[in-house]
Amino acid sequence: MDLPRSTTYHLLAELETSGFVVHLPENQTYGLGLAAYSMASAYTTQQPLVRMAQKPLREAAALVQGSGHLARLSGAEILYLSEVRSAQAVSLITEVGVRLSAAHTASGRIMLAQLPVAEAKAALTNSGLKKSWREIRENLELFQRRGWAEEVEEVSRGQRSVAVAILDHLQRPAASLAVTYRADLEDAQNSVDGALGVLMKAAQSISARMYGTTTTVDDTGTSVVAGDAG
């Protein structure tokens, strides 16, 4: 790189401090650190998700004449990884890389619903939701039981969203699939039911292909998830 020796050591020191490299004095060399491993791991996990989600998101978005989204949970926020739009969709703030409060989005709500109660409560502590914890918990239990969550005009005026979760082998939310559409969509019930069917089928397929997770529905209509860590 034609860098002075002192500059090179300064840069290596910064990388070591941030966890991207580790010093191996016994070998008089440096190796990749945990931060570099975590970044690579995130990339290999994210990219297959994005690829596998594109087709069902386009199909679901077309059914509701809106937009389809793939997102992941990051603390109390969701991070949008992918967005597809139908020809009739309006431009939204939910572009790739955007972060929004998980508590106010359908994507965030369905992923929070899959977490242990203590984790969900911690993420929602400063959410700004004007509801009691009891009401919030009842809603999360409803979302978890029926397999999808919704929001109405909380993110974008005149728009509503529905979302389903992709679960990993530990039955934790790996990501979510969602569609956003006009609140006054004609024949909304049939269109949304169709889109939800597409998203649920896709979520089950992705969970199985990536994590060995299978989902069935019991006699009460409740989703039952089985994970295979092997």
Automatic annotation (TrEMBL):
<keyword id="KW-0805">Transcription regulation</keyword>
<dbReference type="InterPro" id="IPR029016">
    <property type="entry name" value="GAF-like_dom_sf"/>
</dbReference>
<dbReference type="Pfam" id="PF01614">
    <property type="entry name" value="IclR_C"/>
</dbReference>
<dbReference type="InterPro" id="IPR014757">
    <property type="entry name" value="Tscrpt_reg_IclR_C"/>
</dbReference>
<dbReference type="InterPro" id="IPR050707">
    <property type="entry name" value="HTH_MetabolicPath_Reg"/>
</dbReference>
<feature type="domain" description="IclR-ED">
    <location>
        <begin position="35"/>
        <end position="212"/>
    </location>
</feature>
<dbReference type="InterPro" id="IPR036390">
    <property type="entry name" value="WH_DNA-bd_sf"/>
</dbReference>
<dbReference type="InterPro" id="IPR036388">
    <property type="entry name" value="WH-like_DNA-bd_sf"/>
</dbReference>
<keyword id="KW-0804">Transcription</keyword>
<protein>
    <submittedName>
        <fullName>Transcriptional regulator, IclR family, C-terminal domain protein</fullName>
    </submittedName>
</protein>
